[in-house]
Specification:
The complex is a heterotetramer of chains A (321), B (323), C (502) and D (316).
Chain B lengths: L14 E7 L5 H19 L3 E8 L4 H13 L4 E4 L8 H9 L3 E5 L10 E4 L2 H15 L4 E7 L5 H16 L3 E8 L4 H14 L5 E4 L2 H13 L7 E4 L2 H9 L4 E4 L5 H13 L7 E3 L10 H6 L16 H9 L2
Parallel strand pairs in B: 1-2, 1-3, 3-4, 4-5, 5-11, 6-7, 6-8, 9-10
Helix pairs in contact in B: 1-9, 2-3, 4-5, 6-7, 7-8
Chain C lengths: L7 E10 L2 E11 L4 E6 L5 H8 L7 E6 L2 E3 L4 H6 L2 E4 L11 H6 L5 E2 L2 E2 L1 H15 L14 H14 L4 E5 L7 H16 L3 E5 L3 H7 L2 E6 L2 E7 L5 H9 L18 E10 L2 E9 L3 E5 L6 H8 L5 E2 L2 E4 L9 H7 L1 E4 L3 H5 L6 H6 L7 E2 L2 E2 L1 H14 L15 H10 L8 E5 L7 H16 L3 E5 L3 H7 L2 E6 L2 E7 L5 H8 L10
Parallel strand pairs in C: 3-10, 3-11, 6-9, 9-10, 15-22, 15-23, 18-21, 21-22
Antiparallel strand pairs in C: 1-2, 1-4, 4-5, 7-8, 11-12, 13-14, 13-16, 13-17, 19-20, 23-24
Helix pairs in contact in C: 4-5
Chain D lengths: L1 H11 L1 H19 L6 H26 L7 H15 L8 H25 L3 H19 L10 H8 L7 H19 L1 H11 L1 H6 L4 H27 L10 H11 L11 H20 L4 H19 L6
Helix pairs in contact in D: 2-13, 3-8, 3-11, 3-12, 3-13, 4-5, 4-6, 4-11, 5-6, 5-11, 7-11, 8-9, 9-11, 12-13, 13-14
The chains are: A mainly alpha (321), B alpha/beta (323), C alpha/beta (502), D mainly alpha (316).
The structure holds adenosine-5'-triphosphate (2 copies) and magnesium ion (MG) (2 copies).
Amino acid sequence: MNLSPSSPRWLYLAIQRRRNRGLNGLYLVVAAFLIVYAILFPGLLSIGGFSKFSQNWFPLALVTMAQALLMLNGGISLAIGPLVSLGAVVAAISMGGPAGAFGGFVAVVVAGLVIGALTGLIVAYMRLPAIIVTLAGSFIITGVALLLLPRPGGYIPDWLSQALAGHQPTAFALLVVILIAWKLFLATPTGIGLYAVGDNPVGAFRSGVPVERIRVVSFAISGLLTALAGLFVAAQTGSGDPVIGTSFTLNSMAGAVLGGVGFLGGKGTMRGAIAGSLLLSVMINVMFFLGFPPVAQYVAQGVIIVGAVAIPVFASRWRKA
Amino acid sequence: NAAATCIKGDRKAPYTVGWANIYSVPTWMKQTEGTIADEVATLKKQGLVKDLMITDAQGNAQTQIQQIQSMVDANIDAIIVEAGSSTALNRVIADACAKGIAVVNFDSLVDTDKLTAKINTDSNEWGGAAAKWLVAQLNGKGKIVVMNGPAGVSVSDDRRKGAQPVLAANPGIEVITETNTEYNVAPAQEAITSLLFAHPDIDGVLSLGGALSAGSVMAFDRQGRAQVPTTGENARQFLELWKAKKLKGWATMQPNWLGALSVYAAVKALQGQDVPAFIKVPLPVIDDTSIDSYLAKAKDFPADGYIYSPYDQALFDKLLAQH
Amino acid sequence: MDVTMPLVEARGVSKGFFGNPVLKAVDIALYPGRVHALLGENGAGKSTLINLLSGALRPDGGTILMDGRPVTKLTPQGARAAGVAVVQQELSLAAELSIAENIGLGATPRRFGLIDYRALRDRAAAVSALVGLTEPLDMPVGDLPLGRRQMVEIAKALFRRPRVLILDEPTSSLSAHEAGVLSGLVRTLAAGGVAVLYISHRLNEVQALCDHVTVLKDGMVTADRSLADVSAEGLVRLMVGRDPGDAFPAFAPATAGEELIRVDGFSAGAVRDVTFSARAGEIIGIGGLIGQGQEDFLLGLYGAIPATASKAEICGVGHLLASVAAATAAGLAYVPADRKKEGLVLTHAISANLLLPSLGRLMRRGLRDRTGEASLVADLARQFSIRGDTDRFVQALSGGNQQKVALAKWLPLAPRVLLLNDPTRGVDVGTKREIYLMLRAFADAGKLIVLLSSDTPELVHLCDRVVVFRQGRVVATLAHDKASEEAIVGAAMGLGIEGVAA
Amino acid sequence: MKAASITRILFRNPPLLTLALVALVWIVAGATLRGFGAVGHLRYILELSAIIGIVAAGQTLVILVGGIDLSVGAVITVTAILLPLISPDWDSTGIVGVVVTLAVAAVIGLGNGMGQVYLSVPAIIMTLAMATFLQGLLVLIAGGSAVSVTNEAVIWLGSARPFGVPASIVVWILVAVAVLIIIHRLPFGARLLALGANPLTARLSGVNVNRTTLAVYALAGLFSGVAGLLVLGMNRQGYVGIGDPYLMTSIAAVVLGGTSILGGRGSYAGTIPGAILLVTTTALITVVNASPGWRSIMFGSLILALLLISGREAQR
Ligand SMILES: Nc1ncnc2c1ncn2[C@@H]1O[C@H](COP(=O)(O)OP(=O)(O)OP(=O)(O)O)[C@@H](O)[C@H]1O
Ligand SMILES: Nc1ncnc2c1ncn2[C@@H]1O[C@H](COP(=O)(O)OP(=O)(O)OP(=O)(O)O)[C@@H](O)[C@H]1O
Ligand SMILES: [Mg+2]
Ligand SMILES: [Mg+2]
């Protein structure tokens, strides 16, 4: 009897392959939408068209990642939208200042990290439910954004707008970089600790995983991603707007759940979340090119979201039977 | 005869027109869409317009950027914009303009000038006129509450800014407090009710939006307080309450036909006519002398809608001719 | 006396929860190379003690010494650094992570700050081979059946190259074969100088494996001695403090009544084409290596997972039961193996758990009859000797008492068929005996009992017939007189011992 | 010693704690702010709380069963806009319109449940998609032909004060009693709690998961519908967006009342003071003269502070 377990030659790759399980349905749906979109709008395949498309998707992809990160370790944030707004506002008021664009970038990064970490500290150490802490946080952050910039405005250097949201696929390249960074993060002890904490906090604690620290770190990273989404939105629009991010809260949750990320923690993958956000984004374009009137847009959106979740379930049930 | 901004003269009728709406569900928008659809139907008959494409950004400025981008990608001829943010759309609108698309923006305006035309009443003037009327009603002395739209929105801010110099010039007028709510009846009613308990003496309500005024009037009524002079807009509910409660009222209007005018202006621009970069639509005033004429038409309008003044092509031509 | 120093020692440690003392001035010392048994009834405080030794909890009083030096504020990381590894009774695994990642969790090898997956693979493969874990290392743990997860948990402990290995009921969900592999492993480790603390309610295992025993009773140490000259009965006496009597009630062949279950060509989950029948008054054992479809068989009969059969008659219903509701209505009850995840609502009161299946039976004027319910709960608690306030959360009960709740809750429905999935898992000898007596009484009262068990002696001593599963099929049906441990294990391993068809 | 035991009792009993907080906020506000604490004001706050409380009744059930309902706001809006449209002229009492509208609301809720039961769509996605559907429905029906409410029953709900108690508060009391009975005195309530805490155990114990889920979401739809009628009665007019403010507030009221957001633990008894607390806080902020930014900050900080006191044990 051969007792030696099958140890795959490339353990990391084998694990990664397994994580695609259950997502193939979603991948197919997304691919179908992309193909339809490319047929309706062949310009998508040009550099300019692709750049514009990926720019519109990019901030949603970032906030979906931010939300999925929290949901994976058992949290959630209702302050995603306000924090996007705040990121945009901080960028727009600080880039015209003495420290310039770089100073503005640093300010956004610091704002995101600090607000995220503070939320994480409250949730992790005071053992308060994340959903309501971030609900309270959403009001506070909105208030701060309104104080900093009571009405849309501010200054973003044009070169930055051109660089990030011009006619080159910079946004897509950045997304790739962020995804690589995420993969690297997941390959650290903290990264897999994130899953363990979400799935089984007591077990993780007993295994020597620093549960509270990981919670705080994930809130901080999530805050950073969200604020960076705000920075990008500011660059894309050339300005700051204290309420621009509002709808990102629900959309980030929808993207993550659509991508198979569970609410109870530890279940789901970032690639699924990204695919979910891509579906939400490409759906808008496809519906436009199909000439849907508003009523149909609403109904189709509901059907697509439900369908993207239900069809894979049905397909697997059907296959089994 | 110089062409309007953005227009390159390479687009031939019939045109495809896109309406990039920020949110199509509210009644004001629904009514506005009606005037746009009517105008498009008229222009279709004249062989000028081929198609109307409507997008609904569901209140999300980010989505609106994406939808306008799609309109640019689809290379339609004209884009009518109701903006979800005064700044967010600047770059995508400039892109559209660079492609020779006629971009006309109405009601909620963007900051950029890289578009064919902006059409609106003057929000500053709106606030100023309302404040002037209220000050006159109170003889320059009294405690008032100011009701604003949502925080962080330019229209609300502009109206408030317009009122400021008038209030500043009348030190006898004391602003007890201000509210910021969605332009809706229920939250306005709630806010004013709370204020009524806290302040036994409110002499006037400077409401800078129609549904807000209706909420305020109802709050006074439900708490059994005597009505005070109240400003507002042509919301049917406010006008009806004004009449029913016999209050001292004043209203102006943001006509829904700004939408129709935008389509008309875009088509004219595409045809080569020089359309002014800013088309200022005069603010009609509704007061005790004219309210009956508006209420007479009430049943043609939805209960939660706005009773707008009549319009026709002659009016549009006159507005387009101004410089 | 031994000249070597204990690697880990607790001196006079005490611990209480919400003012209830659980451990009172307990001493224990773990020496290298010695397999040390920790025995005690359910709720005696065994798990609590090892939580103190491994830093998961802090003692209220007393000291813990590592290598002879007292440590204050022991944390899980600190204990790990000192070489203490624990196989928890509650699994500490994360379902979505792979076997390898779980094994390495909290102690992963790193390179440049990243997990070194190559080293992780090699080391995880090595420990997996030791415990006999053959599944691919990249498989998510959530895909494994309970027993296999237990193996991962053990591999995880070994991965830390422990000097002190603490095993809290490691075999409770393992079959005789896997338990044998583990015993060999423990012996090898001890021979290599590892100090082992072994907790188990299977006294024959303890007898065979351990050198030394500490017995806890009501939070105090009642015995601390070598096992060299202790017999099996002596061990039981040590533990319960009185003469134990026979472990199993006397076997009485069933006076088989009406046929309650009859399925032909039954398939469900991993079960393929099984023919099975059973009559009122019988106790039918279900055995085999873990994860061979036994559980799916019970779940399929219970209507909890989709099942098919060419012919079926269950409790007078002429077809398979389509849902749990239909099954309970027909008179079936199912007691799951994983009581925490499937059998109980841990965050609810004992009373709420006891009432859950029979809700709606005690009503007055359209509302729940509070007094009736209270007396029902009191009756059940008395009948199963569940002591204390029934408004406490089930969570606060020890494992054995939780098991009683999971079983007791079905009684008000007066089921005719009891489908039991490892009902004595983690239950102490005393309680086990109570449960056996109960099962005997149920059978005598004309109920049919289908007893799936990983504890082979149970199958041997209690059952009229033992049905052995292998790869989803029935490979043997052994009548009581043919059902020896060897026969069952042999059939389970596929060694071709011919069974007698029922 | 005595004080210590009182605090212990409070901390063990989230509903009581939340109630104590309400009382505290009221006493402090009444002493420092003019108008606060007057009987009329209290009554008005309760009237507003009634609406949140009734929406949160459904939300409590849904959260207890381990789900969440993001469509409550849309259901309120649809109800408020639909009622005037479908109230038949021949029924002078308005009862028919009310009954039909409530039936529609319950059916919408049932749809939420069906999506989860038959399509295996998670609650958050299903109810979010339902809210989107309803927006589409509103595009169709709103603005076109909406008329002021003439339905006598609804007007009565919005203005009547039997024995000096506003009708909406009476309705709330009825709903509260019904929900408390459902949760604590009916088998259904015990089943839904078990289902919320551990679906697997509940299913294996014979709880009909599908039927329970359907019933809970239908009830949530129904209660949102009732709230919609009250809102309509108070504003005399339905408009798009009228239900929006109630989505987050209903969730917040539930969580502030000590119900676990993870399901299976909690009671409507906590949601009641939770709703009052939220309305009180909003009213307090309205009266304070500050810039919108500061108001928002104050509101958020107050919620956070209340949570620090009351929500301690809400998790785990
Ligand atoms: N969380 C708790 N809160 C209060 N009392 C508790 C708690 N846990 C246990 N107890 C009490 O401690 C005592 C010991 O508990 P245990 O669970 O061992 O019961 P037991 O009757 O000894 O069961 P058995 O011997 O059958 O395992 C019991 O009287 C029980 O009521
Ligand atoms: N976290 C806790 N909160 C309250 N009571 C607890 C807690 N953990 C354990 N107890 C109580 O402490 C006592 C000892 O529990 P422990 O788990 O150590 O028993 P055990 O000897 O391991 O039992 P078993 O054989 O059933 O595993 C029990 O009465 C249990 O109810
Ligand atoms: Mg005990
Ligand atoms: Mg134990």
